[in-house]
Amino acid sequence: MVSFTEFESTDKYLLKHFTSQNKLPQPQQAERVFLAKDQQKIIGIARIVLFDNQAWLRGLYIEPTERHKGYGAQLVKYLLEKLNQNCVGFIQPDLQSFYQKLGFKKRTAEQLDAQLNEKYTQYLKTKPRLRIWCHQR
Description:
It contains four helices and seven strands.
């Protein structure tokens, strides 16, 4: 049975193994990490960076063998409940319908926290198709 939790120090080695196996960067210290776990195995992670008025969904990753089972959506719903604040994602066009179904809506760069707007501008240099989507609280 899959459970959803926020990262705890006891998950340290499981997370390190998961990120290594999936060739993902290790979460940074400033990030909050949320996990989808099947018993003692991580099958998905979501990384959040908090800004003054907004949370930034910096990454969502579900193991390929576990995709299309609803775990990504459940993990996002879980973290939104725990954060209890607006959450912004920089989303590729092929994933926009996924986020739209979760209640995210298109936003403009002007609606971002100043620091987050700066991050978005940096991301656009290498990923020009990204668009801003926000879940309002």
